[in-house]
Prior knowledge:
The protein is of the alpha+beta class. The protein has helices at 27-48, 52-72, 76-81, 88-105, 118-140, 148-189, 211-228, 255-270, 324-343, and strands at residues 13-15, 21-23, 233-238, 243-248, 304-309, 312-320.
Amino acid sequence: MPNVYTRTGDKGLTGLFGGSRVPKQDMAVEAYGTVDEANSAIGEAKAVAMDEAVRATLHGIQQRLFVLAAELASDERGRAILDNTISDADVADLEGLIDMCLEVTGPQRAFVVPGRDIPSAALHKARTVTRRAERRVLTMAETHPVRPELVTYLNRLSDTLYALARLTEHHHDLGRVETLVRDAVARALGAAPATPGAVPGRPGPASVFDLAACKAMAEAAEAEAAAMGVPIVFAAVDEGGNLMLLHRMADSLLGSIDIAVNKAFTSAAFKLPTSALKDPSAPSGDLHGIQNSNDGRVVVFGGGLPVFVDGRIAGGIGVSGGTVDEDVRIVTHALNTAQEASHS
């Protein structure tokens, strides 16, 4: 096995792939050395990531960074024999990853202060090192040949790491808030719910939650609302908070659209009726200010219910248009009616 030390660089020179030697302070060395730093920072983020999919994604990015650094560390002869180099397809892969993250977190509306949790902090650190690597490569390009695809990839990579950091923060916040909410609700009720969604006065689990079931719930909600003389909006989201169905009665308020969707999102996100957040979110409650999280999508009054199937969260439904008591009555009727129909 070759020694770690070779003594060939003792005079301040290092070899490029292709055979030529340059000073260690050459901008090419500075550039690929900083890319190596970025790769190590991404490795640190990978080591502390809680999500297996994030770890796999970061590992794949590291493999491509080795290829990018190899090109920066090559002279003209070396570059001529490299294959599988960074291309527009690699950039497109990163852009697709960014888009997927944004589908969950939504657009950024405020500055992010790194340090929400260890995994996201590591991603933010990797992002800043990658930005520095991009600057070093741009400086290198002033005196050395550098393909524009390399600069574009590093630019998009820092955006990708930022998007992954936000996604990690989002999941951290949801997990933390869900734990706090469940503890607060359990104390308020005097005991923890025996099963997911088993809150006194609320419907039990559903047998199925698909588009047909959502339509049946919307029809039941409309029928109950019409009988009460209350024009409402009904919304249903899946377990990821993505909108599945939006049903609006004539004469319902435009403002009820967002509220109904946010009620459905809140109930799915925290796996609880939105009414369960009312007391904990009060100034004296354990979760004061929770309504300001998730870009203001959290609703802390009644009208939203989680939907469980086989003990697992399947989504949430929300109703808006009447008073809080009316919305609760309508959304509860909708879920109960759909459950009775599915079991008959």
